[in-house]
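Hi all, long-time lurker, first post. I run a small reading group and we've been trying to get comfortable going from sequence to structure in the token notation. Rather than ask abstract questions, I figured I'd post a concrete chain and ask someone more experienced to write out its structure so we can walk through it together at our next meeting. Sequence below, copied exactly:
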Amino acid sequence: MSNSTYISYEFKVDPLQPATEILIAELGYAGFESFVENDEGLTAYIQKEEWSAFILEDVHILSSDEFKITYEFNEIEQTNWNEEWEKNFEPIVVDDLVTVRAPFHNKPNTKYDLVIEPKMSFGTGHHETTHMMIQHILKNDFKNKSVLDMGCGTGVLAILAEKVGATKLDAIDIDNWCYLNSLENVERNKCNNISVYEGDVKLLDGKKYDIIIANINRNILLADIPKYAECLNPNGNLFLSGFYEDDLDLITTSCIDHRLDFEEKIIKNTWVAAKFKN
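-- Answer (accepted) --
Happy to help. Here is the structure in token form:
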């Protein structure tokens, strides 16, 4: 694991949406590499070596009259990073079947126990999109299936997919921190069927899957849906999240254009997770 020092920005955003989504996009362009949303706004992280006092100059939403956004920032040493997220990471339970918890939490008595050390990676089940994707995995048949978890973050969805019976899984993320974190979490959960890769959709050339899970964001999904369709086996399932309910028609149209039929959706706080089938 990297020993980098990080700068942490705490943003308070009012109203939350769509300002938070825009803020994340602009911060990403500025070089921030990880984000955790909360009830008041979000926390954003950037490596100290990538930071400058002018880092927010091109984040235009901060000067918008439509939203009130305030922030403060501080330096986080690697040595106290665990302490930082331990303060904020509570275990979650999904449908009384799955617990997502940190190593220091007590072992639960749910059917599936996922031990995730999120570090800087996205995907603990706290965010609506991850929570809904867990619900989709619980509702659908993954037994003996080949699965792709695209934009895997912590690896939590691939780990659950193996625990419910998937036998061959690839987990891919473009972010190095997520790649390393997924490797750790796969090992921590004693998963034997998950291969973790660092990269993007170009890694999918020549690959075929029974099920594809992609919890990313609208624009990346729209760019990559043609490749997902190409990689799905006959009667395969595609689960997509990372976008708002307002964007579902756009996502669905793209899927239909690539011979993927809409099957069902789950909605949570304006976020949506949808299932498509070929």
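A couple of things your group might point at:
Residues 218-231 form the longest helix (14 residues).
The CA atoms of residues 140 and 237 lie 9 Å apart.
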